[in-house]
Specification:
The complex is a heterotrimer. By secondary structure, chain A is mainly alpha-helical. Helices cover 73% and strands 0% of the residues of chain A. The longest helix of chain A has 32 residues, at 89-120. Chain C is an all-alpha fold. Chain C is 63% helix and 2% strand. In chain C, 65% of the residues are buried. The chains are: A mainly alpha, B alpha+beta, C mainly alpha. Chain A: The chain crosses the membrane at residues 12-38, 50-71, 95-121.
């Protein structure tokens, strides 16, 4: 396993917040788009829904990439360890990867949920 | 009619029945508000059974202001949604807590970690994700219908402290038909309601017909309601709005379309001076005391806009925004000292008037049909 | 299961000299042989004496100047508990009023004051402070640190809380309490002419500042004060929750503070932020309030779950199952909880699509919350459960909380909420979540930790009585309220008419409320009764595995005899010789060589020892600072602005005195032997210093408040058809550009001063530190001057621009004080080229302030011209 040393100590910590942060950015973007579109541009929400679809796909791709990276850092298939309660650097690194991966799962669910209304609500009313 | 409207259907009845019912339900002690008995409500068996269960400890599902006694499309859907969610919630609660009791009390020996982890993944992620996605799709998809633009009557309701200014805008009208503290709607069509407020935020809600919407000063919000069953339903302000928030209610009278049209025609007319000696004397008291500075009685010199319109006060089902029944003792009590009934009300006390004057005044007001 | 530490597995971590005498030096981690080496009892005894002297508490009444976490934490807990009882009494009086229809036990105004204060006090004076109080008390023990990183800051926070709490609560006694609801919606609360809303705004802002101070300290505590070896994957779950909740406070409270600022400006100076007639919007307050208000619910809930996460493994006698899952859910809830605020505004007529997003996010939070609960059940499944008393409370909490959670799923659906919003259904729901998610776990936690605080046990029998009384009483009180709500009863009505079908249910609720109160009284009696004749509790009575139970059995104030090297999540279970080595002083920092109070600072991720920090001791200046800060907040309530300003000035003086005399002191020698062959520096600056982290974290919160104001500008723009209004006067382009440039220069000068000072050119640094405050003051002046033509009372547009300018200038004043403080430091030898922590912190402040001032200038000068 040749993980770049530079990612080792600090950068890997970002996995703990990357997934949910992407969820939050998606949420804010979608909310702001809707608020501005509905106030300024009218009631028929066709283009808005397309926009939401685009932003959602983008967010899912980015979370997917994060999930892949954190899965690699978890390195589950290496030793099938999911407890990470040891003292070593490896335990800490895999722990962050694992938690980050799980957070990505929740973020994906969150992003899909948040986009769901756009599938059912066709106007700004 | 949509499929869910089968629930909560009620026998038809007209405004006459409403008024008659009013008379019998109120013992006339001047404080009792309106009560609707549930004998006129027909419900399917399941809900009856559930209500019977609840009745064992609590008052029934009936009531003039009940979410689970729906008389409109939206309220019907939401009542149904509630029963579905309640059933699911009860099952889940029993499962979760049953499991807790089982593992802490009944079977405390160690179980396999594999099972425990399966529980976290299955119970914590997979199951809720699926169930909630279904629930969201079902409920959110219904939202646009509930907010659909009304095709029937158009109203504008303004929340004041603590009463409701009501304007009806029939199609093509230049000026509204002004009323107050009571909403009349036709059954079977969706009415469009524009909402705003005078000084502070209020919220407009008739539980039997559908959800609520807030009323803001300087901003217009909207909602629409589709009542299905004629009857009288109580509504109330649900946004805290000051001292007499508790006393800011109103009745919604739902009429069959033809009766509604007739009612609207009458509502558009000027007041007819009531006949009878007492009422005539009361009229004099009304103008001598300057009531017209705040209240409007169309067709007379009373053109005040500060307080509620009184043109057809006598035809309403309640007084002082759903606070008192509309009868002589209540009118006297209200005029004598409004603040005693409704803390903070702006209407001054007329306790300097004699009992006879007050009684005459009540006769006049009651006669404004 | 856990692996015991084996020497050799971590050799890649061993460090030798890194930064000469100013860096850590020696052997780390310690080898098993070093740990096995016995300590000479004579040496140990001498060390104990020195430690005891350094940590001695002030005697007699002077004890109130103590700042130690054990004292401050206990006072904090008791004060919050008393405030809770007061708020509970208000609830009982309200239940009496509502027991029968058309009751006249309380009049409308009194009732409105009571429900406003009940909500406000439970939230601001109990729920959040209780978490902070417990954490101040527990966190250093759980991490086996000697104390919190900034003990005087906790003491300051406590005294602020006490003063503010008494001020706000006592207003009820005089009948002048706020009566607009705990959410204080304008215009109802802006047109209210009494001082009630001012008491709420200023009193609670004061307490919020204290809350943020405590949050900053707790975050730094978790990040920097862990014992050596405790990497983040070994952190006790309680610490994880403290970290998440602390960060949430940091992002949730500032929007409310920004809102309070706007609100008070409207009330005091008639700036029409929320007045629809002059371009303001009452909905802006609702947004700001609920951006705070909903995370607040989770801020209250998560710490209690944290207590459950400590109790459940002990009851099951095995490590928690799904540690990662719980970390995931804590972090996940922390994030998701910020996307829910509009579910308090579902009926305000926002577009269906927007409602849908918030509905969906509100439902999504079910998933991480559910994961936590299932992880607990899973732990109990796998363990062999002993039903200890605290576990009974936790089980009761689960039963109540799941019910509240399930109704939460219902009301998170926007259309269903349209029916039950602001009815008693919501009252029932929120009390189910708060009793299940806060009260019961906290009581369980107190039963659990009582022997640890006092070395005595609480009564098993009374505990069971208390539980069953409050549990049944609670359900009798609140279960019928679901029904009352569905039957159409709105919240916040002081009475209701007879015959709508609410009478019976209300009577039942009132009876239930009194049964609950009886349960609380039994608990309070058990808590406070004298236990003099009881035997001492054993050292670890529940046989727990976490470090707090390694507490010194002899009531010593030093926190821990020596700071252990940790190799497991449950050291007391997995490290067999741990207790004996701690007590013998075998581990780190067993001594206080110069009589200072010291604790070890470790690195954020891997807890490698970095620094020995000297924490502050007993002081009066913190109490004086709290009193004067209180004056600065309380006097404006009565429009006494001059005394308020004088008071604020005194508060600043007190704080400066406290900083100058006790923080970032130049040490006699650069490093200290902390035993086990390791030397650690006594002075660090920049990101290694806890103070730098505190500034960074505080400024993150501050930046959130600033962002809220910017959000306000954009909000006005989206919500109103003409913002800025057509033909409105804009800020003067020249002056505002000048302000941006001046701020940039002051920022650059501060940063440059840090660089040249480190390079040894102290004269040049002093010159820069003289120029920087002058530039900053000029920048603030230019910003205000650019707005001179705009009348803030005329419209929300000039008002919000002035709001930004006032906010920026207040921060500039603070920044100037910091620059001058550093300048003074260079003259008096407190700040040298080597010992420059103050300058690092000032620079960090200016990174935030310089940036936000330039953004403010852009929003004032450039944005309106683009938007209009």
């Amino acid at each position: 396993m040749s993980w770049p040393k530079i990612l080792d100590r600090h950068q890997s910590l970002w996995f703990l917040i990357t997934g949910p942060t992407l969820w939050a950015l998606h949420f804010c973007t979608v909310y702001a788009m809707t608020a501005i579109y509905c106030e300024k541009l009218g009631d028929e929400a066709g283009p808005l829904r397309l926009g939401i679809l685009g932003v959602t796909l983008g967010a899912l791709v980015l979370i997917g990439i994060t999930a892949w990276l954190s899965w690699r850092q978890w390195d589950y298939t290496d030793d099938w360890d999911y407890e990470h309660d040891g003292l070593t650097v490896e335990d800490r690194r895999e722990f962050i990867g694992h938690a980050g991966f799980l957070l990505c799962v929740v973020s994906v669910i969150g992003v899909i949920y948040v986009a769901l209304p756009a599938a059912f609500v066709g106007s700004c009313v | 009619m949509r499929w869910w409207t089968f629930i909560g259907s009620k026998a038809m009845r007209g405004p006459a029945a409403t008024k008659a019912q009013q008379g019998t339900a109120d013992p006339g002690d001047g404080t009792t508000r309106h009560d609707m008995s549930d004998d006129r409500i027909v419900r399917p068996r399941l809900r009856q059974a559930l209500c019977a269960l609840a009745l064992a400890t609590l008052p029934g599902c009936s009531g003039v202001q009940h979410v689970l006694a729906p008389a409109g499309t939206d309220a019907g859907f939401l009542a149904n949604l509630f029963w579905i969610m309640l059933a699911g919630a009860v099952v889940l609660w029993i499962f979760m807590n049953g499991l807790m009791v089982y593992v802490t009390r009944i079977n405390v020996r160690q179980m396999s970690p594999k099972k425990a982890e399966a529980l976290i993944i299955g119970g914590g992620i997979v199951f809720p994700t699926v169930v909630i996605a279904c629930l969201l799709s079902y409920a959110l998809a219904a939202m646009p219908d509930m907010r659909a633009e009304g095709t029937g009557t158009r109203l504008k309701v303004t929340g004041e402290q603590w009463w409701w200014r009501v304007e009806y805008w029939p199609e093509g009208a230049d000026a509204p038909i002004v009323s107050a503290n009571e909403i009349v709607l036709p059954a079977g069509s969706r009415s469009e309601i524009a909402l705003t407020a005078d000084k502070v935020i209020h919220s407009f809600w008739v539980p039997a017909l559908g959800g609520k919407t807030d009323m803001f000063p300087g901003r217009e919000t909207r909602m629409s309601l589709e009542p299905l069953e004629p009857g009288t339903y109580r509504g109330q302000c649900t946004e805290f709005c000051g001292d007499s928030h508790a006393w800011m209610a109103f009745n919604t009278v739902v009429l069959p379309q033809e009766e509604y049209d007739a009612w609207l025609e009458n509502a558009a007319t000027d007041a007819v001076a009531p006949e009878g000696e007492a009422a005539t004397r009361g009229r004099e008291v009304f103008f001598a005391e300057g009531c017209g500075a705040c209240h409007q009685v169309r067709g007379t010199a009373a053109t005040g806009k500060v307080g509620p319109d009184l043109t057809h006060l006598g035809s309403r089902t309640s007084l002082a925004a759903g606070t008192l029944p509309l009868d002589e003792p209540s009118l006297i009590r209200w005029v004598r000292d409004a603040k005693a009934v409704k803390p903070g009300a702006e209407m001054p006390a007329y306790d300097h008037l004699s009992d006879d004057d007050l009684s005459d005044l009540a006769a006049y007001l009651e006669g404004l049909i | 299961m856990s692996t015991t530490w084996q020497p050799g597995r971590i050799e890649d971590e061993t460090f030798v000299t890194v930064e000469g005498e100013h860096g850590p030096y020696g052997i780390y981690p310690p080898t098993e042989d070093m740990l096995n080496e016995p300590v000479d009892p004579e040496v140990s005894k001498a060390q104990e004496q020195r430690l005891r002297k350094a940590w001695a508490a002030p005697a007699g009444w002077r004890i109130i100047s103590a700042v130690n976490n054990e004292f401050v934490g206990k006072w904090y807990c008791m004060t919050a508990f008393v405030f809770m009882l007061c708020a509970g009494v208000l609830a009982l009086l309200m239940r009496v009023q509502l027991s029968v229809p058309e009751n006249d036990f309380l009049d409308a105004s009194t009732f409105n004051q009571f429900f406003t204060m009940h909500g406000s006090a439970m939230m601001f004076l109990f729920a959040v402070p209780m978490f902070e109080a417990l954490s101040i008390l527990l966190l250093p023990e759980i991490l086996r640190a000697r104390d919190m990183p900034f003990p005087r800051l906790s003491a300051f926070g406590y005294w602020c809380f006490l003063i503010g709490g008494i001020f706000v609560l006592s207003s009820v006694l005089f009948g002048v309490a706020p009566e607009g609801g705990w959410f204080m919606y304008p215009p109802l609360s802006t047109i209210d002419e009494s001082i009630g809303p001012d008491i709420w705004l200023l009193g609670l802002s004061f307490i919020e500042v204290a809350s943020i101070a405590a949050a900053v300290e707790l975050i730094v505590g978790v990040i920097k004060c862990r014992p050596p070896g405790m990497r983040i994957n070994l952190m006790p779950l309680y610490a994880w929750y403290v970290l998440v909740v602390g960060v949430m406070i940091l992002f949730a409270f500032p929007p409310l503070i920004a809102g309070d600022f706007l609100f008070e400006m409207q009330r005091s100076f008639d700036w029409p932020f929320f007045d629809p007639e002059r371009g303001g919007d009452p909905l802006l307050w609702q947004h700001l309030f609920w951006i705070f208000g909903h995370p607040e619910v989770y801020i209250v809930f998560l710490p209690s779950i944290a207590l459950a996460a400590m109790i459940i493994p002990t009851a099951a006698q095995r490590p928690i199952v799904g540690y990662n899952w719980i970390v995931l859910s804590a972090v996940g809830v922390g994030f998701l909880s910020f996307g829910l605020w509009v579910h308090h505004m579902f009926t305000t007529g926002l577009p269906s699509l927007s409602l849908g997003f918030f509905s969906a996010a509100s439902e999504a939070v079910v998933i991480p919350t559910g994961v936590q609960l299932f992880a607990f059940v899973a732990t109990l499944m796998v363990g062999r459960v002993k039903m200890i008393l605290p576990m009974l409370w936790i089980a009761g909490a689960m039963a109540v909380f799941t019910a509240g959670g399930l109704t939460g799923v219902m009301i998170a659906l926007a259309p269903f909420d349209w029916q039950v919003h602001d009815t008693y259904f919501i009252v029932a729901h929120l009390h189910y979540t708060l009793f299940g998610g806060m009260i019961f776990p906290i009581v369980g936690g107190i039963y659990y930790y009582y022997p640890f605080f006092t070395k005595k046990m609480m009564s098993e029998r009374l505990g069971k009585w208390s539980f069953w009384l409050s549990f049944t009483g609670f359900n009798i009180c609140f279960l019928p309220m679901h029904w009352t709500g569905l039957a159409g009863m709105p919240r916040r009505v002081y009475t209701y008419p007879e015959g709508i079908g609410w009478d019976m249910a209300n009577m039942i609720s009132t009876v239930g409320a009194f049964i609950t109160a009886a349960g609380v009284l039994v608990f309070a009696y058990d808590l406070l009764r004298s236990k003099k004749h009881q035997p001492r509790a054993p050292r670890n009575p529940w046989k727990a595995g976490t470090l707090e139970w390694a507490d010194d059995p002899n009531d010593e104030n030093w926190g821990v005899r020596s700071v252990p090297f940790v190799t497991s999540r449950y050291p007391l279970w997995d490290q067999p010789k741990l207790l004996e080595r701690i007590d013998a002083g075998r581990y780190y920092l067993p001594d206080s060589q110069e009589g200072y109070r010291e604790t070890i600072i470790t690195s954020a991720v891997d807890a490698r020892p970095q620094h020995v920090t000297r924490v502050t001791g007993p002081a009066w200046c913190t109490i004086w600072a709290a009193i004067f800060t209180g004056g600065a907040f309380i006097f404006p309530t009565f429009s006494w602005y001059v005394p308020a300003a004088i008071s604020a000035a005194f508060a600043v003086v007190c704080v400066l005195y406290w900083l100058w005399t006790a923080t970032a002191q130049v040490p006699v020698r650069p490093s200290q032997d902390v035993s086990l062959g390791l030397r650690l520096p006594l002075y660090v600056s920049g990101p290694k210093a806890p103070g730098w982290w505190a500034v960074f974290i505080t400024m993150l919160g501050d930046a959130t408040a600033f962002t809220s104001l910017i959000f306000g500008v954009f909000y006005y723009w989206t919500a109103s058809p003409d913002f800025p209004p057509a033909g409105a006067l804009h800020a003067d382009a020249v002056w505002i550009s000048g302000a941006a440039i001046l701020y940039a220069l002051s920022w650059a000068a501060t940063r440059a001063a840090r660089g040249v000072n480190r390079g040894g050119m102290q004269r040049l640094a002093q010159g820069l530190l003289i120029a920087a405050p002058l530039l900053a003051a000029a920048g603030g002046g230019a910003m205000c001057f650019s707005l001179m033509g705009m009348d803030p009372t005329s419209h929300a547009y000039p008002a919000i621009m002035w709001g930004l300018a006032v906010w920026t200038c207040a921060h500039t004043a603070c920044g100037v004080i910091m620059q001058l403080y550093c300048l003074a430091g260079t003259f008096f030898g407190k700040l040298t080229s080597r010992y420059d922590a103050d300058l690092w912190n000032t620079t960090l402040y200016w990174h935030f302030h310089g940036g936000s001032a330039i953004i403010a200038a852009a929003v004032i000068g450039w944005l309106p011209r683009v938007l209009s």
